Amino acid sequence: VQLVESGGGAVHAGGSLRLSCATSGLDFSDASMGWFRQAPGKERDFVAAISWTGTSTISADSVKDRFSISRDNTQNSTYLQMNNLNPDDMAVYYCNGGGRYRGSYYLPSEYWGRGTQVTVAS
Predict the structure, then answer these.
(1) Which distant-in-sequence residues (6+ apart) come within 8 Å of 3 by Cβ?
(2) Which residues contact 85 (CB under 8 A, 6 or more apart)?
(3) How distant, in Å, are the alpha carbons of 82, 84, 93, 96, 117 from that of 90?
(4) 102 φ, ψ to 5°?
(5) DSSP per-residue string spanning 58-117
(6) Best exposed site among 34, 47, 48, 111 by fewest CB in 10 Å?
(7) With the C-alpha atoms ordered 61, 62, 65, 68, is the resulting torsion angle positive or negative?
(8) Longest dimension (CA), the chain
(9) Which DSSP string do the residues of 12-72 spell out, in sequence order?
(10) Which residues pair with 76 in a beta bridge?
(11) Angle at 16 between CA 81 and CA 24, to 5 degrees
């Protein structure tokens, strides 16, 4: 199983980025997907997840109304649209595939990408 994130970069506060996670070797259409982030010196935190059907999503309170997760089963990919970014969002963002999705939480699997850096200048 491979997950490859892309789309990170440097933006000013208030800007937007769209992260992508391309997968291979995963039964993607049956896999719930999640995004996590890790800032320097901090633990890896949950950001958002989407059910395998794509009909249900959950997200951390800190990103609600600014970030949205989506998926395209024809591309075996999941996406994270991030709007109104602020310096607190600066981190390495990781994709996780095939975790356990429940209505209020997502338990990650052992399948992680290598991450993509998001930098936000104030």
Answers:
(1) 21, 22, 23, 26, 95, 96, 97, 111, 112, 113
(2) 11, 13, 14, 15, 16, 17, 66, 118, 120
(3) 11, 12, 9, 19, 8
(4) -125, 175
(5) EE-TTTTTTEEEEEETTTTEEEEEE-S--GGG-EEEEEEEEEEE-SS-EE--S-B---EE
(6) 111
(7) negative
(8) 40
(9) ETT--EEEEEEEESS-GGG-EEEEEEE-TTS-EEEEEEE-TTSS-EEE-TTTTTTEEEEEE
(10) none
(11) 35
Distances (CA, A) of 85 to 19, 58, 62, 74, 92: 13, 19, 11, 29, 14
On whether the CB atoms of residues 16 and 85 are closer than 8 A, the answer is yes
In this structure, the chain runs to a length of 122
Q: List, for residues 21-57, the tens digit of each pLDDT value.
A: 999 999 999 999 999 999 999 999 999 999 999 999 9
Alpha-carbon distance values, 24 to 27, 35, 98 (Å):
8, 17, 12
